[in-house]
Amino acid sequence: MNNTNIYQDKLDYFESINTGPLKIDLIQIKKAYADQRNDQSLAIKILSIVGAVMAFIAFLIFLYAANLFESKEGLLIGGIVLLTGSLILNKLTDKIFFDSISVCMFLLAFFMLGVSTDQLGLSFSSMALLIAVLAISCIFITRSYILNFAAVLIAVWGIFASMVDRIPEEYLFILIIPLGLLSVFFLLNEAKLLHFSEGMAARYLPLRTAFTLAFIGSLVATAAGSLFFTEITFKIVCSGIFIVLTIVILFNLLKNQDYRSDSFRYLTLAIIAISLSLTSVSPAISGSLLIGLICFQVNYKTGYILALAGFLYCLGQFYYDLSISLLWKSVIMMASGALYLLIYLLNNKKLKNHENI
């Protein structure tokens, strides 16, 4: 909000409707409004990240052309210097231009550290785990939106990459479960997390966005490939958890709408549960639907759009991978579409009848 006086109108309103005295920390409120990073729109932050990534790629080309990748000690020292410099620069200023520079230095630091540790003889999984631990440590140091966002994505990648050589491929689906639960927790507990500590209040938005994006990205990455010719036990376990959570979220959404009868609610939930159970070999479908519903419930539009795009892709991939004829695929798709269209029409009819009353 550009108008720094607007919070006074809100305070006056809350005082008018409250019967008792309100304890308000005006100093902290003014400090929050004075923070320029809170005024940066999501589009500006995205452009900043894109610019930083482009600068990162350009600098990598320069390092490669100068044959600087051959010195493992130089890469290690350079990575430490760049990482320290990015954190210090981010502490000294909150301008968007310097934010972009700090992100570029941040990404370069992790890349150089990763290459140097690989040249020092560490295995890929050990190097990825070290990168993940370092990224998590940076989250506790900086409060920058962009740096926290990048650090979470790097940490998630590092954890997943460190497990590639350690566990069988089918076990990777189990790793999606804690990531999904963490995303659900951040989406549903905004108020509690914002009041947990001052540091969490400053980091909540980038963490929420990063966990949501990382979870949807992991679902999309696992959506492709054969559905039935690999081990499906862990896929079904993963889907089962997401389906149960989806039904719980839907139940709460339907419970808050009094114009629907109990029989209509339970019938709708039963149809959705059966439909999702038929896609249990693809946890990406139920997972993206779960995140989409929660984002809709908490009015998080960015997450809702990302989840919708992921859901459509995962559903299309599931349709493509089914080992049945194209005719039966079309029949199933048309029948399911007609069924949900009927539910939508019945719901609209009940809503209009309720409004007329």
Automatic annotation (TrEMBL):
Ligase found in the keyword field: no
Keyword set, alphabetical order: Membrane, Transmembrane, Transmembrane helix
Transmembrane spans: 46-66, 96-115, 127-160, 172-189, 209-229, 236-254, 266-296, 303-320, 326-346
Domain DUF4401: 42-347
InterPro entries found in the cross-reference section: DUF4401
Keyword Cell membrane in annotation: no
Protein name: DUF4401 domain-containing protein
